[in-house]
Q: What sequence folds into this?
């Protein structure tokens, strides 16, 4: 026995979105809510799946005919056949997958029309022009979508007619012109060997099958791959009685939002096009007017649309994006769905809907995409005042920035000293550029992907950045850059928007971030559901303060190397690297000690009363030296100091610095550095206590791979703890081997902090700096479901973490566990660790994301626990 595969809207209530598709589902709900919807039938996704499997669906045509008979009854017209003064019933054939999916078949309107039908339509409407216009639209749409002729061919024939008649716009064509055009279309399709079926039922059959097949077209497949939509859903087909927005000035078609999708402001928002049919709005042939204009010339209609919008919101309990048509003053709803919105709008809508009592506070918390929050806090380019962008790159770090172009650290320092904002422009960035990146308001690079050094560091710093801007050529030595023929020099003003990737010449006005208050309200609703601690990755007092303002409960990762990179310190770092005698080393360490102690004091003061995890020196020493090439040139030119550095740099240089002489390896073999850093931290703590503060330092060693390393480091630390008293001591867990040996390391430490950047790199055996060459393509081709440098790989890396936590806790029940990679501020990664770890640590601007994501995870797990 075969099940039903075709339903009238009125019969489909209660069936799933999976079966009806999103569009069909929305129509059924609207009918249920009492809204005016033209009668329709839905061919289910099940029929589509069967068709794709078997190439045909036995009995489907009969089922369609039976339901079409019911449709005819509802409308009081015969499909494709006019009778007396009654015009024929025409339908639209529309595709609708369970998830919204551009790339599938375009809608065909006016289907069912034949030559006799045109006559009848002309007679009934008293408007032959309308009738022929309707027919030529059907021929072009059907020709393109079902018979697969190129759209340009139809456009070409249309242009030829317009030219012959000496008119500019379609609107100037007469009924006779459109009739002639229709015959040109018919003849063309005939000669091409794909005649237009002048039988309504054949048209319908062809259109339904074309929708089925469009599920498998390359555009749709590509879209599914990118967005991870299953291949086997299939699409439903909606066959709906036509209503006509092109019957005159009292007709039209439009799109509405129940609230403003950009700002979230409550109230109807949308666009309307008078005397037009569906696709005219999208095609951009004429510019639609704002919906609010209707208030002036059709106030009753406007009120009716407002009433409908209100009903839609009450029914769907979310902001709706709806499509409608007005036929001779009567309103018909044709589609509704939850509207896409900016982060700002999402927060406002969620909070206000909860306050209006439409949704609960918990639902409001769950509705906001946590990953979108950082973009909320940043100003954006004011769209209304922006010129055309000169460049478009990858949106690497959100927010907009205006500043003077600089090409180097020195340039950034010069302008900053004068109190001027800067945009650092580089071919790409390296750790060398950190000062310039830190000082600048924005970063622009010609090369690199979303996980390039520039992108990662910029996000960490919260500096807006556009990377990989193709078409940009940068020559830092010359102090110039070029975009096409345009030359950009140091000091020129540039504006960039790291949320969109756009770059503008000159200073474009920025719109300040709004909605801070609403966000705080949302977070106050979220907080009770969060059990995961949220700390920040911060290296400077100002970052620490910012993080604290965003609600960070401590610092989970304070990197000490950034402190080494500052201008006045680098010479001492370099002396340390060059030291030939213990005395030379001691002198360099002494100077650095003084700097570090002050740094630590400042950051501990900023986080007074909260834990601050300080990671001892991580990168290899050669990162603190200028590039080899530069040293070589200076050395050859006779610079003695450069020569010494060059020799040393050559000796230190590594093929794979990521896997080289760094982290704990360096700290154990150059224990002077270890002692200097730890002593500076302990001394800073002591002094602050004497000043009446409540510092809570923790020390952490990077890159441990073996328990012996942790043991020896602990012994070194204990020497100082003897003198100063102990502080929590932990290891970063960032090598797979450390995770595997967690049970042996755990008894030696007070905490683990999963450094998921390196742990991911090492677990996958890929380097973030080189992954740009293949990772994007890997993701695009579905080899990886997502970029694991961005979102934590739960399967592999997550398994290492879980195992290390479980075995570590077993070996040391007092062990604390946290996470401090880039993933620590990515919502899905946070959700994964929310029940597993004690805390996560995110870059300051991602602290809010982490807080919200952790609360959402708490809410979800509770919801499931209750059901
Ligand atoms: P899309 O998936 O691209 O939104 P739709 O199926 O919604 O395509 O169709 C696009 C437009 O065609 C609709 O917004 C509406 O204006 C018009 N349209 C579709 N069906 C009908 C109909 N039965 N009567 C009048 N216009 C229709
Ligand atoms: Mg479409
Ligand atoms: Mg639509």
A:
């Amino acid at each position: 026995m075969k099940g039903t595969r075709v339903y009238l809207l009125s019969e489909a209530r209660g069936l799933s979105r999976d079966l009806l598709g999103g569009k069909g589902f929305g129509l059924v709900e609207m009918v249920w809510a009492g809204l005016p919807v033209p009668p329709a039938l839905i061919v289910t996704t099940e029929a589509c799946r069967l068709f794709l499997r078997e190439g045909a669906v036995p009995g489907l045509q009969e089922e369609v005919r039976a339901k079409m008979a019911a449709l005819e009854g509802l409308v009081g017209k015969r499909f494709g056949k006019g009778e007396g003064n009654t015009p024929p019933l025409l339908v639209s054939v529309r595709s609708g997958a369970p998830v919204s999916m551009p790339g599938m078949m375009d809608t065909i309107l006016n289907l069912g029309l034949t030559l006799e039908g045109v006559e009848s339509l002309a007679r009934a409407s008293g408007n032959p022009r309308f009738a022929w216009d309707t027919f030529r639209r059907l021929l072009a749409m059907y020709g393109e979508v079902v018979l697969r002729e190129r759209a340009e061919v139809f456009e070409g024939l249309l242009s030829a007619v317009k030219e012959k008649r000496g008119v500019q716009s379609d609107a100037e064509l007469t009924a006779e012109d459109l009739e002639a055009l229709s015959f040109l279309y018919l003849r063309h399709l005939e000669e091409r060997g794909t005649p237009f079926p002048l039988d309504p039922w054949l048209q319908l059959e062809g259109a339904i099958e074309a929708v089925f097949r469009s599920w498998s077209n390359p555009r749709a497949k590509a879209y599914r791959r990118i967005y991870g939509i299953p291949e086997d859903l299939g699409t439903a087909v909606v066959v709906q009685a036509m209503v006509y927005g092109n019957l005159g000035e009292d007709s039209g078609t439009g799109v509405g939002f129940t609230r403003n999708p950009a700002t979230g402001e409550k109230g109807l928002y949308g666009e309307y096009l008078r005397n037009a049919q569906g696709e005219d709005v999208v095609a951009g042939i004429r510019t639609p007017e704002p919906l609010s204009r209707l208030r002036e010339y059709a106030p009753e209609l406007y009120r009716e649309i407002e009433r409908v919008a209100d009903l839609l919101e009450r029914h769907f309990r979310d902001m709706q994006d709806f499509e409608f048509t007005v036929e001779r003053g009567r309103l018909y709803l044709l589609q509704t769905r939850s509207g896409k919105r900016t982060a700002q709008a999402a927060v406002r809508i969620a909070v206000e809907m909860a306050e209006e009592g439409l949704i609960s506070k918990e639902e409001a918390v769950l509705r906001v995409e946590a990953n979108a929050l950082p973009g909320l806090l940043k100003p954006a380019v004011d769209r209304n005042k922006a010129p055309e962008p000169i460049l478009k790159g990858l949106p690497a770090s959100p927010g907009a920035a205006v500043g003077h172009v600089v090409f180097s650290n020195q340039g950034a320092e010069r302008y900053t000293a004068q109190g001027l904002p800067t945009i650092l422009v580089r071919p790409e960035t390296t750790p060398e550029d950190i000062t310039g990146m830190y000082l600048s308001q924005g970063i622009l690079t010609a090369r690199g992907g979303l996980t390039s050094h520039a992108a990662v560091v910029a996000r960490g710093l919260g500096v807006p950045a556009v990377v990989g801007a193709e078409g940009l050529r940068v020559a830092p030595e010359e102090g110039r850059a070029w975009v096409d023929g345009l030359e950009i020099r140091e000091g020129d003003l540039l504006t960039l928007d790291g949320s969109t990737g756009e770059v503008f010449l000159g200073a474009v006005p920025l719109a300040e971030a709004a909605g801070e208050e609403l966000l705080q309200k949302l977070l106050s609703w979220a907080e009770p559901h969060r059990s995961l601690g949220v700390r920040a990755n911060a290296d400077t007092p100002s970052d620490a303060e910012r993080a604290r303002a965003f609600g960070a409960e401590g610092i989970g990762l304070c990197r000490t190397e950034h402190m080494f990179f500052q201008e006045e310190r680098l010479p001492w770092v370099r002396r340390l690297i060059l030291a030939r005698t213990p005395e030379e080393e001691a002198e360099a360490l002494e100077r650095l000690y003084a700097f570090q102690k002050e740094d630590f004091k400042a950051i501990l003061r900023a986080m007074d009363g909260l834990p601050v995890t300080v990671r001892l020196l991580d990168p290899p020493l050669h990162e603190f030296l200028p590039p080899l090439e530069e040293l070589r040139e200076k050395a050859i030119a006779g610079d003695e100091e450069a020569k010494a550095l060059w020799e040393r740099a050559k000796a230190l240089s590594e093929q794979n610095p990521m896997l080289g002489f760094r982290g704990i390896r360096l700290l154990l073999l150059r224990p002077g550095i270890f002692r200097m850093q730890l002593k500076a931290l302990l001394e800073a703590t002591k002094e602050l206590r004497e000043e009446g503060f409540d510092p809570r330092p923790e020390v952490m060693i990077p890159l441990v791979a073996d328990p012996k390393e942790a043991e020896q480091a602990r012994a070194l630390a204990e020497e100082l703890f003897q003198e100063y008293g102990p502080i929590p001591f932990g290891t970063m867990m960032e090598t797979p081997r450390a995770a595997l040996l967690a049970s042996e390391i755990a008894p030696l430490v007070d905490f683990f902090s999963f450094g998921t950047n390196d742990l991911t790199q090492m677990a996958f055996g890929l380097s973030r700096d080189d992954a740009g060459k293949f990772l994007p393509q890997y993701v695009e081709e579905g080899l990886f479901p997502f970029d694991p440098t961005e979102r934590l790989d739960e399967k592999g890396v997550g398994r290492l973490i879980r195992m290390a936590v479980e075995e570590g806790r077993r070996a040391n029940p007092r062990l604390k566990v946290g996470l401090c990679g880039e993933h620590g501020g990515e919502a899905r990664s946070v959700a994964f660790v929310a029940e597993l770890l004690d805390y996560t640590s995110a870059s300051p601007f991602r602290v809010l994301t982490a807080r919200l994501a952790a609360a959402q995870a708490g809410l979800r797990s509770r919801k499931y626990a209750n059901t």
Q: What stands out?
A: The longest helix spans residues 582-606. The chain is about 45% helix and 15% strand. The chain has a mean pLDDT of 92.
